[in-house]
Amino acid sequence: MFKNFFRRNKEEKKDENEKHLEEPIDEEEIKATNENGNIVEEKPQINFFQKLKAGLDKTRKGMTDKIDAILRSYGKIDEELFDDLEEILVTADVGINTTMEIIDRLKNRVKEEKISEPDKVRELLKEEIKKIMEESEGDNKLKIGSSPTVILMVGVNGVGKTTTIGKLSYNFKKQGKKVIIAAGDTFRAAAIEQLEEWSNRSGADFVKHSEGADPAAVIFDGIQAAKARKADVLICDTAGRLHNKKNLMNELSKIFRVVNSEFPEAEKEVLLVLDATTGQNAISQAKVFKEVCDITGVVLTKLDGTAKGGVVIALQSELGLPVKLVGIGEKIDDLQEFNVEDFVEAIFD
Ligand SMILES: Nc1nc2c(ncn2[C@@H]2O[C@H](COP(=O)(O)OP(=O)(O)OP(=O)(O)O)[C@@H](O)[C@H]2O)c(=O)[nH]1
């Protein structure tokens, strides 16, 4: 069953990546850097909430707009109304268990607070979604402190790992941090090239070996470079083209061993990159990765292109995996820190 999550049509993906490489880089996105390689030219102030809201447009249409329409269509609150709400949440990939929990709590509150008008249900539903996410919320903040941080990026290919590494590096560079990217996905030369391009765009240093090299050896070199150059953050790419759990475990555990033995003093983050557009499949991938390594957080990409944004709720509450970052577009500045309050406000606004 698990095998399917990792099976990819390599030729098809190769074409996609080569096409991507041929695309000209938008010069506007290349930022001026100072002598330390830090980005000094800032875009005008962006309203992050508005951007998140725009990114979640499809989720809002697929979930909240439908909730509003249902609530308007009912004259009273009855069992059928709850069934309809349940269906909307499940369809928006909130997940069956989480949906049932939310609906149960909603029913209790309606009863306890003696609410009879359907339009009052909206606010209660919003509150319950927020609560259920907050209860299960781990720490949504990345562990970036005074000591260097090693970030291992894991996830199957095609989910947006390369793009996310570039965006993440760009965010750190904007904060004045020294960043090194290690190209631990050595499966294909084009993957290394693509990552190098993102690395250049973000202004990070880049450590690579050739195609087919041992990923753990690349990470080893990345660590030596991070120590020698006193980097604040080392972002390590890993391969996702693994066909079964055992291979995945072997490959990742070797990398983890290298990081732990060579860089014990560093903070560690293991970020699982998931594609929001795959909905419940993303949840299944998360379950597999959770079994093979200690995930410290999730980056959910492509939230802008999907109505399945409810998957955030399921990830946090069903799997207890804190969503730390969300991708809301293809551009270098389209990666945002995640927080429950903004997310719930954005989908119910
Ligand atoms: N709309 C949107 N597209 C995204 C986002 N993140 C990544 N993408 C797109 O998703 C596609 C795949 O991204 P990659 O970064 O190449 O994915 P990958 O996981 O590194 O894939 P491999 O190179 O096969 O390992 C690209 O076309 C990206 O532009 C996002 O947040 N929103």
UniProtKB/TrEMBL annotation:
Domain SRP54-type proteins GTP-binding: 322-335
Keywords linked to the UniProt accession: Cell membrane, Cytoplasm, GTP-binding, Hydrolase, Membrane, Nucleotide-binding, Receptor
UniProt membrane topology term: Peripheral membrane protein
GO molecular function: GTP binding; GTPase activity; signal recognition particle binding
Catalytic activity: GTP + H2O = GDP + phosphate + H(+)
Ranges where the record places region Disordered: 1-28
Residues annotated to bind GTP: 155-162, 237-241, 301-304
Keyword Hydrolase: yes
Family matches, as CDD domains: FtsY
GO cellular component: cytoplasm; plasma membrane
Biological role: Involved in targeting and insertion of nascent membrane proteins into the cytoplasmic membrane. Acts as a receptor for the complex formed by the signal recognition particle (SRP) and the ribosome-nascent chain (RNC).
The protein's assembly and partners: Part of the signal recognition particle protein translocation system, which is composed of SRP and FtsY.
UniProt protein name: Signal recognition particle receptor FtsY
Organism this protein belongs to: Tepidimicrobium xylanilyticum
Gene: ftsY
